Structure prediction request, 162 residues.
Amino acid sequence: MDKLKKVLSGQDDGNNDGNGILERANQASTLAWGTRMKGFVICFVLGAFCSILGSCLLWIPGFGLAVFAVLYSVGNICALASTMFLIGPCRQLKTMCAKERGFATAIMLVCLVLTLCAAFWWKNNGLALLFCILQFLAFTWYGLSYIPFARDGVIKLCSMCI
Prediction:
C-alpha cells in the first residue's frame, strides 16, 4: 500500500535532482493521503452531480441547453481536476500532455471551450449539443488511455460491430 501511495503521489521517481520550481512547489504543498482521497472523491462526485444535473435541466424550454452546456462542462472540469488530488497538479499536467493522451486532451479542452462559445456567444443550440457530445467522446477516450489495452479493446469492439 505504501508503494501505491508513493507512485500515485509522484514520490517514486527515484531522482530528485534538477527539480523545477513547479515540482518543488508541488512537493512543498503535498497533502496527506487521506486528504487526497477525500479531495478526489468530493471533486469527482461534484463533477458527476453537475453533469447529471445539467442533463436533467437540458429539457427545460428556452434556456435548458445553455444551462446543460455550462453544467456539463463544469462537471468535466471537476472530474478532470479530481485526479490532481491523487497525483498532484504537475504530474497531472505531464500525464495529460503525454504522447498517448495528448490528442484526446487537446480535443476535449477545445470542445469544452467551443461548447461554451456555442451556448453563449454564438447562441447555437445544435452546435452546443454537438460539442458536448464530442467533449464526452474525447473525455471517454482520454479516460480509456489510463486502462491498459482499453483503447485497443474499444477499437476491436467497434470494428466487430461494423
Remarks:
- Residues 33-57 form the longest helix (25 residues).
- The chain is about 75% helix and 0% strand.
- The mean pLDDT is 85.
- Helices lie at 2-9, 21-28, 33-57, 64-87, 89-96, 102-121, 125-144, 150-161.
